[in-house]
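Quarterly update from the structural biology core.
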Amino acid sequence: MEGVLNFSYGKLFTSDTVLDNAYMPSKNFFVSDQIFVHFLQKEISKEAWAFMQPKLSRLGYKAASLLDHFSLSADKNPPFLKKRDAYGRTINEIVFHPDYKKLLQIAVESGMLSVKWDPELREEYKGYSNRLCFSLAFLYGMGESGVSCPLCMTDGVARVINSFADAEDRDRLMKHIYTNDVEQLFTGAMFLTEKSGGSDVGKNLVSAQRIDSSYYLLNGEKWFCSNANAEIKLVLARTNPDVKGTEGLSLFLVEKHKPDGQINPMDIIRLKDKLGTKSMASAEIILTDTFGKLIGKEGEGFKIMVEMINLSRLWNSVIAVSAFRRCLIEAYQFLSHRHSFGRRVLDHALVRNKLYDLCCRYTADFYLTWKAISFLDKADSGDASSGQVLRMITPMVKRQTAETAVYGIRECMELMGGMGYMEDTILPKFMRDTLVLPIWEGTSNMMVLDMLRTYNKNNGLIPLMENTHKHLILGNEYEKDKNRLTVLLSDMAELRSMDKDHMEINSEYIFKELTLFVQKGFLLRAEDSESTYWIGPALKYLNEKIYGRPSGTVVPPSTDEIIRMIGWGF
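Predicted structure, tokenized:
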């Protein structure tokens, strides 16, 4: 009996750790990312690369070392509304955890906004501004997605102010956007939706009454105000109740203080209790004789606001791809150092096959997103044809990347088993945060309707398809692709003879397949001797999505192939 009781657990198990002793998390999300580094180095000028490389490396280090701590802390300690002070006076103060400001500080000091909006940098790196800004946003999004919303809103507000505000407001406000000092920063917000319509903005009810040549008094409730504490808010309101739909909406610049320095009245009813992006404050706000300054002309508000909405959709795409990348890397590193059934989990065929699927989806979405951003840079530089492509590809990339990220992060959690479900890892937070991406800036259904609207207006699909054809000719299946595209475009043309319901339903299936061809074209254009390790499998994957998997026995990808597809250096 003594021999039975006198045992040691150490003799029964060789290790009681989850991962082997060789595990080491990434030290720098920029330096480690072979796909991102390879793409960006080819995409921007040598001068822009030399300027950006140290910035990207610094932020990549912070994203891998500091952001997780601050992000999880701010997520678990969300902002709260201090409605009144001790003497009963309404103050409507939103109180943030200190780590929220640290997150914002890292973003501002990275140069994310200054590289795009500082006049000198904007001129020096003309033609690359959006790609430089988004390259930093991509790295930042690998650590924190909640604060990415205020950054997105601030970038969008800057775009509107820079293009449509008068010179005095532009000079006064823009310096607070491109500042590298978080204490001087003015963040932005877009107060768009209302209870009456949600995505149907044409049903908005908030009114605006003129009081002088520039200022109006705004009255009514805005139902979903993200970054509610912003210093600069762009608000849609109706100047003439008799003009229905979006044609009756005008855009107003609303600041925290009125022209005389008094507090501009905005009553915060409550903060939204959201599933994710908890670090950032979203609110329901009632405007009562709130001062707003007209931007542009009356009735042009929604048209101007679309500039901000479309930019926000690209932000949405970048954050989707970024979050997916981070979770994919977390799963990959875990599987590389987790052992089960006598070998590394990474070496199991079903695991490799799932990683193959996720890597291909990521690669296709990565290039789709960044090519859309390059079209934005070209359009901003005056290229009209890129502007035409951008109108179709923006809702396409927003829909595609948001849906992929939600799917991909869930799969990454499953690959990590119970560990992926634990709140002391980062995957649950990313899962919650990412679930909003198919909703924000227009739901997936709204993206289909936007693509359909662009198609019906001046046949807006043609410029994108012409661009896609030029890329597909580089592939071995060009004749096959050309024939299939001809059928799809013929099907699209037939939609015009259908009633509204049939048109919408059938366009969704067509646009989904067209997206695969657009992705394939971009990958063919980008493939070279180095990127073929991750682009080659993605092209095979897209072909199988379009034409079906060939019959016969499936050959699982090898471990080495998966490692090359991941494109990540520990």
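The two ends are 50 Å apart (CA to CA).
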